[in-house]
Amino acid sequence: MKNPIQFIQKLKRRVTAKHNVPHPIPLFSIVAFCLLFSSCASYRNIPYFKNLPDSGTVYRNGVQIPVTAYEDIKILPNDILNITIQTVDPDMNNIMGSADISTANPAINPALSRLDKGRDAAPGYLVSSDGTIELPIAGEIKVGGLSTAEAREAIRQRALKYYKEPIVNVRIVNFKVTVLGEVTAPGSYLINGEKATILDALGQAGDMSIFGKRTNVILARQENGKQKMVRFDMNSTDIFQSPYFYLRQGDVLYVQPGKGKAAANDAAMLRTYTIITSALSLLVIVLTRTK
Looking at the domain assignment, is residue 207 inside a domain? Predict the structure, then answer.
């Protein structure tokens, strides 16, 4: 039997025609109508920023949305820092080139190779639990709780004792966020730079799927030893004013699945139920007319 639904429907037509029974409305059509109606209703929650005015002024000139002020991220214990020092003295640069300060004493996080889609783990200086790092020649320096700009200046001041007009660069190389739930590619991602937003994280993960609940995106963040949970409504431009709009190291975003996800997963089951119900309806008609 190639198509059980067509077979059952053909048999029902024969029985109803023979006994002059009005042709019943197929259950499959009712289910399809209900699914279509629910999908049309749920579309209202799919677009981002739907509270943005739909007017000619917005199309011509745009609209200004207030954005929360950005605060520099702070260096935390277990951060890995890439540090480079260059001077105007060629001889000193040659000495440092033989033992590159950006790769010396590497602290490798085993998870990083998985985080960045197989790319080699980045070497650097691991910030200890007391917020310090150990640099060649310059020695131990306190960087915990500082921004990268402040850490750069602290290292530069120490380097002035040993190097001529040093130029220092500091970058956090294990700034990662995790995106879970109804997105195209859930996982953990390394962030290039420091000024990353929840939109950047969703973009890294390939955006939310059609089943993602835009009104309930959850951010989990460690703050002062406690877990902080924040909800975002991606349908509204209010997210730009949230103090959690900019991401921090270790943030986790979770996109909750909507009801459409359950409906999609149950599609095969609904098809099976439809076949069984149609068969039972046919059996009832046959038994009723044979009495």
Answer: yes
